[in-house]
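To assess whether ligand presence alters the predicted conformation, the chain was also submitted together with manganese (II) ion. Input:
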Amino acid sequence: MDRIIEIIKNSKKCAIIPHVKADGDAIGSCLAMRTALRNMGKNAVIYAEEPVEKRLEFLSDDIAVVYDGEDVDCDTCIALDCGDMGRVSTREPIFKSAGHTVNIDHHRTNNGFAEANYVEPTASSTGEILFELFKKLGVELNAEIAGYLYAAICFDTGCFAYSNVSPKTFMTAAELIGYDINHAEIARRLFECEDINSEMLKAELISRISSYYDGKLRMVRVGEAECEKYGIRPEDVQDLVNIPRRIRGTEIAASLKQSGGEIRVSLRSNGGADVAEVALRFGGGGLLFHRRNAFGGGGAYCEGMRGSV
Ligand SMILES: [Mn+2]
C-alpha cells in the first residue's frame, strides 16, 4: 500500500479501470477514487468496457467513458476490483502504456498483474479497501465519497448479508454513515428497484428451475430469445444465480446466461462445496470465503462466483 500511495501522490493524470461488466463494487470504487483524485487536484477519468448497467445509473450522471480504443494519455493507471488482466479486457492498451500501474482488489485469485498490487482477500469489497487507502492517503472524506464507498460495500455484501462481512466491514460502514449519506436509499436503489419486465422474466425462469441430485444442485438458464420476449438486454438480467440459490435444499446453484455468442456461468455454494475451484478449472475467477456456519458452527462456508465457458 505504501508503494501505491507514493505512485498516486506523484501522479497527475490517472486512468481508472473497473472490471468488465462492472458491478456495484467496481463502479462505486471507481467513482470514489475519481472524486478523491480530483479533490487532490489530479486529472482522473474512468474508462469502462461498456455502458454502466441501469441499476447503477443513480450513483452519478457522469459515470464513465466507454473506451473505444483511442490513445489515452495518462501517467498512472489504476485497476479496481479486477482479478486479472482478462478483467481489464479491452482497456489493456491503457494499462500497458501507463508509466505506473496499480491493482487494488479483494479476489483471492488475483495474480498481481500490476507494478503495485494491494490484494486483500479478507476484505468484503474493493470499496472497503479504498476506505483504508484513503485514510492513509490523507483524502478528506465527504458525503459524496462516503456514498460511493457505501454503495460499493453494500453491493458486494448483498446489503451486509453475505459471509464476506467482517467486523471491519461494519466499522467501515458505520463511519461512512456518519457522513450523512442516505444509506437506506442507496440500498433500495441497489436491491429493491427492479424492472417489471425483468421480474416477469424471472417468474418464468422460476417455473423452469432444473434440479439434480435430489435438489442439491439447482440451475436456471436464460437465452437471448427469452430476453427478447420481455424486451430486456441479457446484461441487464441480474442475480440469476440467486433464483435457485434461495430454494431450500440447494447446496450448489448455477445459472447459464447466453449473450453475444457466449454462455456465462455463475456458481454459488450454500454448503461446503468449493465452487470457485470449479470456476477456475473452466478459466473463470472466484471468491472463496471460509466462514463459520450460521450460529457459530465449525463448518466452512464457501462461495464462488464467475466461471465462463
Ligand atoms: Mn468486488
